[in-house]
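Record pair follows.
FIRST:
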Amino acid sequence: GNDYIEFMDSYDSQGSLAPRDIVARAIDRELKKSGQPCVYLDIRQHSEEFLRKRFPNIFATCEQFGCNMATDPIPVVPAAHYCCGGVRVDIDGVTCVENLYAIGEVACTGLHGANRLASNSLLEAMVMAHNAVEHTRGVFNDTDSRHIENDARPTPDWSKGDATDPDELIVIYHNWDEIRRFMWDYVGIFRTTKRLQRAKTRIRNIRKEIEHFYWDFLITADLIELRNMASVAEMIIDSALARQESIGLHYNADYPVADGNISEKETILRRPGFHRELY
């Protein structure tokens, strides 16, 4: 319609075909300028038959919300996507921890570089899974499960010590929600050093609360997930603060261009005292 204005040409020479990180930042800026809840994707030049065949799941989802892709512009906002980093592995999914493999979105295989490309998830899900299975066959093919059962040490009964049932589970869920919100607001698609420092302050305080809960109360699945979430969040924040440049998905407005001296180096985090090399 005449009420819609194309804006991507002012952000990138490729216009609407620019890489997704550039498009996401452009959308974010447009929404902040306009105060609107969304921008729109207009693909009404295609027939309904083509769209249903080419994008069956997206078409069905849009229909659930009363939007016909063939006749209506599609509301669009930036959203959290997959990570480019993760547990460092080699081409077979092998980690630095003996007999531990990592594949899929939890792993950092190097397939993505500093950005995500469409359909690269197929490499993660299919190729890396295949490689990991083939590697385990070579490592564990002589292992007899009966020997494992016979030699296994009995697992001691769980001792809760002085831990008690948590009296305020709302604290867990509040921290869970707060991490999600400030990671999106401060460590999202548009970063600044000041925002990252604010996030660092918040995650430190939250981790103190989590440790209090972890040691004083009975452990629950939600508490474990919250503890892990906070650990990953802090690693992301620290890594973002250390990388004083913008490259791929990592964009810091205070350092808007790539620095060749930094870009060539990966950010690798290890536990203190853990020095085993992967490759």
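SECOND:
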Amino acid sequence: MSKRKIISSLFLSATVLGGLLFTQVPTVKAIESEGNVQITNNPPQNSPIFSLGDPIQETNYNDSVKKSVSIDATIGDSENEVKWTVNFDSTLWNLRYDKGGYYFIIPDGMQLKKLINKKTGENLLDKFSTDVNDDKNGSDSKYRHFKKGKETHWERNFDSQWGWSAGRVGSGQVNQWKDENAFSDIYYIDNPSSDGLATYELVTEVTDPSKANKSFPLVAVMKNYYAKTWYLGEPASLAGREVTIESPQTN
């Protein structure tokens, strides 16, 4: 009597960060048994796995705009990159006439390498000042950068900008990430003047491989400065998504 048992899977994508392998689906082994003969192909046992967390979508306004911001992520083009896709759907936000803003909150342990407007194909990163105290990073600038731990006055302070963006929404999970010091930088685009779907691609590079087993969360926020919530606050919606490097199991 013969038996056959096959457990199959696909390696959809993989890349290596130093000694770390990122994969988007679990590896699986195949076992074939014919009588007393058994052939086994085992997956790599020392390969950490890249996993994508569940999406977070919240708002301080109403349910019609709760899902206005979304985030997805995949492995990037090189060995230590993550590629994020951020969508802002301003259809119900009236941002063609009202002033609004987009915020990108970058995970600690990663560096932003590209911020691409998918409609134009332009990499906007060079438009942001690397020095948060630069005159080009003032309140009248369209592209602004805020860095955690950087000594500056209150208007350019990371925590102040957090309070005016993600802090407006008050998502429990996102606030927990902040309490865990999971963020390092905020990039802000002022008055995008959009009345439909705007898509941005962010490429981040892992700069701290020691963060194995810890998440890298990205948060994006869209808000309207002219409309008001019932308690006279500025309406805002956010999305959050984390990627995690899982250490290999050892016997």
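COMMENT: The first helix runs from residue 158 to 163.
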